[in-house]
Every structure is written in C-alpha cells, then in structure tokens.
Amino acid sequence: MNKKGLLIVVSGPSGAGKGTLCKALLAKHNNLTLSISATTRQPRRGERNRESYYFVSEKEFTEMIRQNDFLEWAKVYDNYYGTPKKPVLDMLNSGNDVLLEIDVQGALQVKKEFSDGVFIFIFPPSIEELKSRIKCRGTETPEAISKRIKSVYDELKYVYEYDYIVINDNIDKAVEELSAIITAEKCKTKRNCFNIDAIRREAR
Ligand code: 5GP
User: Both ends of the chain: CA-CA distance in Å?
Assistant: First the structure.
C-alpha cells in the first residue's frame, strides 16, 4: 500500500527566516518538495519565474481562482498569493512530503481541508530582532516595511492554530528542530496503523 506524503505548512512573519530554514530543510530531506506558489507580486532581484514563484498577472490569478486551481489563496501586503492545488495533491498521493511556505490566512484554509497536515510557526528570537531583520533586507520600500511590521502583530493572534513553534535564534538548531518534528510526525500511530493492521491480519 502506498503511504501518502506528509503536508508540512510553515508560516511566520517576514524576517523570521522561513526562506532560509525551508531551503536548509529541503537540502536535508530528499523526500521533501517545496510547493511553488503563484503570485501577482513583482519579482525581486534574483528571483526566477517558476523557481521562486509563478509570477502571474492579476487577470491570470483571478482566472486560476475561477478554475478552482488553488488549494488556498490570500491577499498578503497588497499582492495575491496562492498554492496551486494539483501538484501538491499529486506529490502527496505519490508518497512525497510537501512543504508549503505560506501566510497565516492560507494556513488556516489548508487546515480546514488537511487536518492531518503539520502546522509550524517560525518566530525570531525577539520582536526587535525581527524589526531590524525586515529593515536590513533592503528589498522593500519604507511603506512596505512598516506594513510588514504591523502585520506581525496581526499574525501572532493565530499562533495557537499551529502545532509547533520554532524560534529561529540559530539556523542549525532551528533546522534540527524542524527535522525532529518531521521525524516524530512520521512515527505517529495514526500515520502507521495500516502497517500494524496488516501484521495483525497475518497473525489471525
Ligand atoms: P514574499 O513576498 O516575501 O515572498 O512573501 C510574502 C508572504 O506571502 C510570506 O508570508 C509568504 O509566506 C506568503 N506566501 C507565499 N506564498 C504564498 C501562498 O501561496 N499562499 C499564501 N497564503 N501565502 C503565501
């Protein structure tokens, strides 16, 4: 029997270091694939279409919503972001683990459909540290920076919807914690009972 993959959802404020942690996690787990989102945001320097995101127009995004192509979608800081449904379902059905790096609104939508998913919130060591990380990135305008800082407080309201919190104080330690979460989740009884049931049937 083919075991379904694990759906891992990672959220957290911008500047928490989600991108870096996800990259390190992907390098460590070869059964784990990152879902590539669609967005109406303009590409930043160094970002490549179909690698970082599918960069689409608002018209294309609206059409994808109409076609029911998204697992979830949300407006985040004036732009639309969405997770294309089919690749995620195909990967899970073929036994691959899938990582979604999405905002809180999107994670709540996914949770409704995939209560079996693993929901992880990444947070920096302090709010001061977070503010300085957002400012230091240098990729955003001052208005965008203050919008991102304000939204941190809004996002924190939903932290209790997540199964785990990982504090990104030290990258190696945070990646180790994320790996430990994946390992533990894979060992959960509910994800393995079909193996045990098969053995019990044999014994009869
Ligand atoms: P950025 O513009 O910095 O790449 O991403 C901004 C925010 O959008 C981040 O919090 C990121 O996690 C979130 N995001 C990226 N892709 C998706 C997606 O497909 N769906 C949702 N809901 N949020 C996303």
Answer: 20
202 is a domain residue: no
Residue 82 Cβ contacting ligand 1 at under 6 Å: yes
Which segments of the chain have a pLDDT < 70?
1-2
Percent of the chain at pLDDT exceeding 70: 99
Please give the distance, rounded to the nearest whole angstrom, from the Cα atom of residue 76 to the centre of ligand 1. 7
Give the predicted TM-score (pTM) of the model: 0.92
How far is the C-alpha of 106 from the C-alpha of 74, rounded, in Å? 6
Look up the domain containing 60 and give its range. Answer: 7-191
pLDDT at 197: 78
The pLDDT of residue 92 is 97
Question: Which atom of ligand 1 lies nearest, measured to the CA of 14?
Answer: 10
Domain at 84, CATH number = 3.40.50.300
- Residue of 129, 97, 112 lying closest to 25 (CA atoms): 97
89 CA from centroid of ligand 1 (Å) = 19
